[in-house]
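Support case: user asked for a sample of complex input and structure output to validate their parser. Sending the pair below.
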Amino acid sequence: HRPDPLPPDPQVHQWIEPLDENRVKNLDWSEVDVTLLGVPLSRSSISASGASENPDALRRAWKGFATYNLEEEVDLTSLKVVDLGDVRQHVTDIPTCHRNITEAMEAMRKHHPQTLPLTMGGDHSITAMLVKGWKKAHPEEQIGLLQLDTHFDLRSLEDFGPANGTPIRNLIESGTIRGEDVCNIGPHGFFNARTLKEYAIETGVRYITLKEARKEGVDHAVREALEVLSDRVDTLYLTVDMDVLDIGFAPGAPAATPGGMRTDELFEAVRIAGTHSRVKAMDLVCLDPLRDVREATVKAGVHVMLSFLTGLVQRKS
Amino acid sequence: HRPDPLPPDPQVHQWIEPLDENRVKNLDWSEVDVTLLGVPLSRSSISASGASENPDALRRAWKGFATYNLEEEVDLTSLKVVDLGDVRQHVTDIPTCHRNITEAMEAMRKHHPQTLPLTMGGDHSITAMLVKGWKKAHPEEQIGLLQLDTHFDLRSLEDFGPANGTPIRNLIESGTIRGEDVCNIGPHGFFNARTLKEYAIETGVRYITLKEARKEGVDHAVREALEVLSDRVDTLYLTVDMDVLDIGFAPGAPAATPGGMRTDELFEAVRIAGTHSRVKAMDLVCLDPLRDVREATVKAGVHVMLSFLTGLVQRKS
Amino acid sequence: HRPDPLPPDPQVHQWIEPLDENRVKNLDWSEVDVTLLGVPLSRSSISASGASENPDALRRAWKGFATYNLEEEVDLTSLKVVDLGDVRQHVTDIPTCHRNITEAMEAMRKHHPQTLPLTMGGDHSITAMLVKGWKKAHPEEQIGLLQLDTHFDLRSLEDFGPANGTPIRNLIESGTIRGEDVCNIGPHGFFNARTLKEYAIETGVRYITLKEARKEGVDHAVREALEVLSDRVDTLYLTVDMDVLDIGFAPGAPAATPGGMRTDELFEAVRIAGTHSRVKAMDLVCLDPLRDVREATVKAGVHVMLSFLTGLVQRKS
Amino acid sequence: HRPDPLPPDPQVHQWIEPLDENRVKNLDWSEVDVTLLGVPLSRSSISASGASENPDALRRAWKGFATYNLEEEVDLTSLKVVDLGDVRQHVTDIPTCHRNITEAMEAMRKHHPQTLPLTMGGDHSITAMLVKGWKKAHPEEQIGLLQLDTHFDLRSLEDFGPANGTPIRNLIESGTIRGEDVCNIGPHGFFNARTLKEYAIETGVRYITLKEARKEGVDHAVREALEVLSDRVDTLYLTVDMDVLDIGFAPGAPAATPGGMRTDELFEAVRIAGTHSRVKAMDLVCLDPLRDVREATVKAGVHVMLSFLTGLVQRKS
Amino acid sequence: HRPDPLPPDPQVHQWIEPLDENRVKNLDWSEVDVTLLGVPLSRSSISASGASENPDALRRAWKGFATYNLEEEVDLTSLKVVDLGDVRQHVTDIPTCHRNITEAMEAMRKHHPQTLPLTMGGDHSITAMLVKGWKKAHPEEQIGLLQLDTHFDLRSLEDFGPANGTPIRNLIESGTIRGEDVCNIGPHGFFNARTLKEYAIETGVRYITLKEARKEGVDHAVREALEVLSDRVDTLYLTVDMDVLDIGFAPGAPAATPGGMRTDELFEAVRIAGTHSRVKAMDLVCLDPLRDVREATVKAGVHVMLSFLTGLVQRKS
Amino acid sequence: HRPDPLPPDPQVHQWIEPLDENRVKNLDWSEVDVTLLGVPLSRSSISASGASENPDALRRAWKGFATYNLEEEVDLTSLKVVDLGDVRQHVTDIPTCHRNITEAMEAMRKHHPQTLPLTMGGDHSITAMLVKGWKKAHPEEQIGLLQLDTHFDLRSLEDFGPANGTPIRNLIESGTIRGEDVCNIGPHGFFNARTLKEYAIETGVRYITLKEARKEGVDHAVREALEVLSDRVDTLYLTVDMDVLDIGFAPGAPAATPGGMRTDELFEAVRIAGTHSRVKAMDLVCLDPLRDVREATVKAGVHVMLSFLTGLVQRKS
Ligand SMILES: [Ca+2]
Ligand SMILES: [Ca+2]
Ligand SMILES: [Ca+2]
Ligand SMILES: [Ca+2]
Ligand SMILES: [Ca+2]
Ligand SMILES: [Ca+2]
Ligand SMILES: [Ca+2]
Ligand SMILES: [Ca+2]
Ligand SMILES: [Ca+2]
Ligand SMILES: [Ca+2]
Ligand SMILES: [Ca+2]
Ligand SMILES: [Ca+2]
């Protein structure tokens, strides 16, 4: 359903359509399957981060990817994907940045609810803003979260404000979502305080540690989480914190640790999430291209996005 | 005038006294010559920066420096220097961060006005906050600025807020200082818009480009600037943006450029400033240890601080 | 069967014999098991590559390897391995480079057919030239290819010429081999266009994606491929593109991707290939030491070669 | 049993107590569970190494770790851990360095035998010195070694002296331990000469190659080794050479190789060792922070230590 | 003379106009002052080079530069500069690549002779092709060369073909230019064979070593060379090999050496060349962004281009 | 006077003759001008260093240098230079290492006194051993030292032993040389304790700080030092500590600092020393290739050696 003929063997940048002034006029929104949105914000990160550079880094790197997933025999070009560019950010006014993000999601949901929004962060603070935007557009919906993360992101809002350590707590305490509608797959090691785990227990936040998930496979854990959550909510929001990956695979995720997830586990996890009809939005956060090594993490980030879209094609067929 | 005997050949970390709880009780403030203050803030930087890591990086690196300046035959141990630690920062509330910085300077000036404050940034936004703190403590004083920088830092406050591109304009527009009491030595190349230069002309901000300064030497330019400014003001505040250095010497200053200052020129410039009786405060900003190479920039940062203190010893003798 | 006594615990460089002028005169070729050949050519690579530096990088790195494989209890010194040095390359005349490579293989096969040639590339374009050289020496033979690669290497010869994206198509279209006599183990992800997959299907090129191969193990896939191909051909040529490895393990393979093979899988794969009597030649390509990290990829390259030779010892015993 | 109240969510550096002059006076040694000791020695390493920087690198890096192990639901703060600082080393007198290490262990065992010593090396030569120190304090004990290493460390003392290639042989030939009381899990590839393997066989040194260990899992191999060894000895000493890890996970272990252990395998291995009552000491060696990439190896080193302590908590409960 | 209003403080990418399909139709060529052309070719380089990535790297990096030269008080926006994109290259057919380059220059000179072509290489082989293109368009002109290079580039065409070591000899032996009409400023050290110097003497090629040039300043040497050459030729072509720079300033120029030119010397040299009316074309070659450090060399490359254009503005006013 | 014909344009590795077994038999020592000796020792360095890798790094890097110095119009091939290989080192016995070094120098001086020894270190401890070897061979000579160094190297032998911080003191206290016969050009900054400067004054050690030397030029300072010292001694030994260079030019010299010497200053300094008839030996120390960036420091090291030999050719003609 794309007017301009694609080359026979398109690369991703030839397929994804940036929405410049000319195109926006002629766009038939009813044909758009997915909208990409960049959020170049990382000044709300607890530790110094260049995740603000990530949206453009992903855009550059996806020139090296084909639209064809050989293992799944899926051609992504059956989807129409539009890149809306970046949400406008302010240099020193973080509340304005966050408000812009919420408004961007709300506007997208109100005007083009048939499209699936895929957001390229930025630090994890943005997830709270994006989900709030969704909730504003769909106040009647129960929203659940499938989180792939090394961390709970349940730290105290009083201490940190809306930072990258607090988005899940932010969503729970603001009443946007319920704790039991969150499932985090991947926490491991010594990177979450005991009180945060206790908070998770109290508020019903579900989690499956990486060690636990690997007993039957991360893919299996994802399928189970999808089943449990999808019974409880109208919309599942998938949030991928790239620091869930092992530091050997993701040197460019500032908080990545040894003992984390492998890229092949993560790609399969998001592909499976993509196949599920309740999963209606996704984001990818905490990838800092400035400290990447040989672009390994940025390439992994693109692969995560394309794996999710592979699942989406499979869902639709 | 230091009670505890130093080892015969102290390294800098053996000489500078961190102000922990025990020491603060017994401290005779009248003996303190210089107070060091860390400001681990870089979320107000226009581009992503890890300058928040700089205060600790300087503290680690100065273990590799002796207190003795061989070329000047100056022993820094004749100064009593106290490290007050870091100003408390907030993760997502930049105005609070800035308020804390201003209050820290104001408090230091009010309670211990005989000491010279030397601040380790952080991004350049902090200079506006520090000078405002000085002004609050000494509202009657005319304050001048000797700036060593590749950039004017005169960008629009409306567009950026109190970021690292706006501190000088911030100080002028808030009435804290007068444009003519600023002199920037080192701007060069294609890194300042024409309208900013026009703003400099309009507001009387003085500057000497690097090319101009090198005609008779950067040292000569500094001496002239000190002479001109010291006739006009009560207090001269020295602010050193590490990106004034050439990128070959300062890979860890995010905005450093080719064609910038050499380290030997900078060290001599700050030493000369240190000798002048009107220079009563100093800061060092925009050094990001996360992108340094072989610690070259962090070591240069320590050297800048020690060169200034060398001048201070020479001033006192 | 080696005249000079080796030290009791030889390192690889003490065992492999470089063929200088003195040695070549006295060499008893009937005793030589394996000949190594460097091909320092990477100007035929689609993207910029320093794979031309690889042969010398391997030679330097193997000084850090013992000749004894502890896990297999195999001592490689039972093989006589001669390093013939590099095929002469031209700076700007790629056809001459390629002709020299073909002639080198043809000459080796004609004069010393009892030795197994192991070639250290260079980019993957050289495989087409090497197999053509074999075919010239043995026009009556059916030759098959066991390829370990992320990519099909079936891109259009009209568009690219004899580049590193086209060697397999080059061999098929030139009638050197049949599509059905190729098996590629390891393609994965979004790195092969759909039309290339269709070309593979049309020409009968076999492939096992990494995901598929891992169901019963890469080792199992290799055994099956060897069985299938060895029934069909006289000679099996093993070609290892180092970009089959995950980018976390092979940062120095320019086209390595996230989600690729692990080194332990690759080492076992080539060892198994080495044990099979039909596998009569091997090459290793697309390793760029200039972008390696801590020599991880170069060390993996040496390990691949030695793993193959381990299999060869096991084959002979 | 710690007097000062810890913060509710302590990081590791808030929990581990450095033993400065003030604290040592008031310390109730009967409450100390574990003593940490740094050994900043790497001039006894065969190849150039900065492992002398490791103790301080670990201390800096553990600020980024919580005390809570989420997967095991273990809070390390139930242990009292004291950091004794570094053993004094000499710049050019290696025998003095080694003597100091032996004496440090002997003194610890004599004066505070109820604490478990955990040593942060340094190169692997120190293990011989530490175990000798133990033996001096407990001459009646049989001591066994559980070694996780790519290498046997059985090279000739005549050729190398007490270097990082010889500690196990040193212990055997000095009569400190018996060969059969050593078990090395993890040797692999081409990194051990055949004569060393023969020496291992002759002296009864046990080993399980990585390939062998992975058949039923590294965790299973560790449990078996613990069972076998614990029947034979009074004390088991765990020594972890970080080069047992794959070079992709441990770029900062100078002798790490492709095809090595994964971090998750190693963390589980040491945790299991920590649970066993006969394991009474541990060291961690051959980690060179100067060549690390994104601190991956240093972080893995901290994780190894904390994983062992997790096992220790589990042992005690 | 630019139709679309520029923002008040344009960055370079807002000012330089990429010539896409829409713009080319409406372009008034008579208003174009400078045409930029990328030549992404480096497979003709003697040693492995990623200079093919340079044109795009320059385009990305110039987003960080203002159009205003503060030291010269020159605003580049008075020039209309059009970026024509890249000359089409072939993967394996170097003669075709070279032919395309020559034809591109010839076509530009024939159709738009009033514009000044500025070419972004690629390796130095392209200079021979570009000057030949000029000669084809203007067969009656005498062309001279002002070369800034560590090397003569006079190596044997028989041995190397049209590589990056031979362009000047290529131009002389093909009769395109005369040896005496070449002046190379910057050769130094041990990087030119004696026979090449003898060839330079025989053919009259002029050169000023860096040591010689620095006696009165590189700027002075450039002025003298311009004077001498401009009396002899109709057109002066400026070719800047980035390896003329010291390796400390230009880590991304593969053949840069210690003891080379400083960036400030080079910027002033090309600015002066830009002011001279006979200088009618320029190229910049041998910059490999893949091995750059902190983009220092790419930024220096942009600075070189903008310094030349600064001179061009000064020439016109 | 070299029997084998060199190629017309030799690179350094084609000219320098490694002394293997075959060549040593036929060597006419009376024709040898210079003997190169590697000393791969850095375990006597105060801080961790890979300077032991330097001799081989220099040998690899000099393949990229021609034998012709264009600026001086000197062809090094008029010298016969023999590379004797490396002095045998022990892994854990530093006194044996040092003894071997002294014996190597003594033997060279006794058997081949007409050749000039040029030693490639290793850390600076070796200079004490080399000069002692010279003294043993020539007990009647007064030996002087021209040192190019950031540091005095006068630290206490009691504290450090024969380390890289003590060689000059070692030579003075052992009576091998007199303090007044040493001149160090280049100390600067905060890298020498005051007591060491006092020791220098007491023992008469001469030094010229970099700031002082630059007043009339480093070249001028070298000429003066040569004049003063040569009147006092029979033999001048030149020792070049690569950390005299600025860290921007010598990232691979572990103790290099900001504000150090430029490479062009150093090259000219050693060339001038090479022209002086009293300078009869040279060494180059403290270059760690493991932490180099783009081989800048190793290339500078080769350039230093060749600059000295350029002076030697000039001396002889
Ligand atoms: Ca996280
Ligand atoms: Ca998170
Ligand atoms: Ca600045
Ligand atoms: Ca600034
Ligand atoms: Ca491939
Ligand atoms: Ca391939
Ligand atoms: Ca080991
Ligand atoms: Ca070991
Ligand atoms: Ca050149
Ligand atoms: Ca050139
Ligand atoms: Ca030194
Ligand atoms: Ca020294």
